[in-house]
């Protein structure tokens, strides 16, 4: 049996100096999922608060929306 306790698949060693930037499609998955579900079920005009919450999350991560 292996004695590895790390859940990461990355090999041990120094971390890369530059991380790949976060893509907008991958940012804020929780608010994105709720926003998208609301738009599909009720229509965009009824989902203002969820849309704004997603925009705020995106802005907090540095995206210009």
TrEMBL record:
Subcellular location: Cytoplasm; Mitochondrion intermembrane space
Range of residues in the leader sequence: none
GO terms under biological process: mitochondrial respiratory chain complex IV assembly
One Pfam family named in its UniProt record: COX17
Residues covered by region (Disordered): 1-22
Binding positions for Cu cation per the UniProt entry: 25-26
Keyword flag Disulfide bond: yes
Source taxon at top rank: Eukaryota
Entry keyword Metal-binding: yes
Family: Belongs to the COX17 family.
Subunit structure: Interacts with COA1. Interacts with the chaperone CHCHD4; this is important for correct folding and the formation of disulfide bonds that stabilize the structure.
Function of the protein: Copper metallochaperone essential for the assembly of the mitochondrial respiratory chain complex IV (CIV), also known as cytochrome c oxidase. Binds two copper ions and delivers them to the metallochaperone SCO1 which transports the copper ions to the Cu(A) site on the cytochrome c oxidase subunit II (MT-CO2/COX2).
Protein known as: Cytochrome c oxidase copper chaperone
Organism: Gopherus agassizii (Agassiz's desert tortoise)
Lineage: Eukaryota, Metazoa, Chordata, Craniata, Vertebrata
